[in-house]
């Protein structure tokens, strides 16, 4: 049981590190998508670059509103 408990704890720590890494990468990508849209890159082009759908890109980085 001690070996199993150790394995479970190690797996939980590994998962937590992976989640943190994913969250950082996701935030970086979202920031870059917003910057891309602000620079006039369309959601279709950003979708092509990322492999995500155009709709997802448009939801994350909507067109900037001009006054």
TrEMBL record:
The keyword Coiled coil applies. This is Transcriptional regulator. It comes from Streptomyces thermolineatus. Keywords: Coiled coil. Residues 1-28 form a coiled coil. It comes from the Bacteria.
């Amino acid at each position: 049981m001690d070996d199993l408990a150790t394995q479970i704890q190690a797996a939980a720590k590994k998962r937590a590190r992976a989640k943190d890494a994913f969250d950082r990468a996701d935030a970086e990508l979202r920031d870059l998508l917003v910057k891309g849209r602000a620079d006039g890159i369309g959601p279709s082009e950003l979708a092509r670059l990322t492999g995500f759908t155009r709709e997802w890109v448009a939801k994350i980085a909507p067109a900037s509103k001009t006054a």
